Amino acid sequence: MPLKRDLDSNRWQLSLNSAALQFSIEIIEDFDDFYNVKDILILSLEYDKIIPVRHFTTERIYNIHFSYLAYYRGIYTSVFPISSNETYSSVTLHKVDEGIDSGDIIYQLRIRIIDSMTSRDLYHLYNYYA
Q1: Side-chain half-sphere CA neighbours of 42 within 13 A
Q2: Under a CB-based contact definition with an 8 Å cutoff, are residues 40 and 58 in contact?
Q3: Per-residue pLDDT of the chain (130 residues; tens, 9 = 90+)
Q4: CA nearest to 112, candidates 94, 90, 84
């Protein structure tokens, strides 16, 4: 499901819609048609809404989150680690539950933050490692 702010073309922020169009991947507008599909795998990346996991028959719902969980849940994950003088952040793969970035962590890849790094630099590293 596309973000409303995804403009279908790459700018400083990459467009998931653009990639889907390039590879002829269908973009869905809502989850209704997928609630009863068995063995479906859902992978979320920068989705801006809570996924209604209770409606799905599958438990294979995952998110790639751009920060070190359990810290920095939600948004602005490229800003908070830098403004808090962290020495590292992470790209985290976790299960999706009813909360906000609160599901069980599957894997984390640590990313070193250097002194001159901006939030935009960190965001680009998140994309690279995700």
Answers
A1: 26
A2: yes
A3: 445 556 666 676 677 778 888 888 877 777 888 888 888 888 888 777 888 999 999 889 999 999 998 788 887 888 999 999 999 999 999 999 988 889 999 999 999 999 899 999 999 999 899 8
A4: 90
User: What architecture (CATH level 2) is domain 31-129?
Assistant: 3-Layer(aba) Sandwich (3.40)
CA Rg, the chain, in Å? 15
Contact 12, 120 (CB under 8 A): yes
Residue 101 tokens, joined: 């970035």
Q: Is 107 helix (H, G, I), strand (E, B) or coil?
A: strand
> Which residue in 77, 74, 103 sits closest to 88, CA to CA?
77
Distance CA 67, CA 84 (A): 13
Domain positions in the chain are: 31-129
In whole angstroms, give the CA distance from residue 101 to residue 65: 8
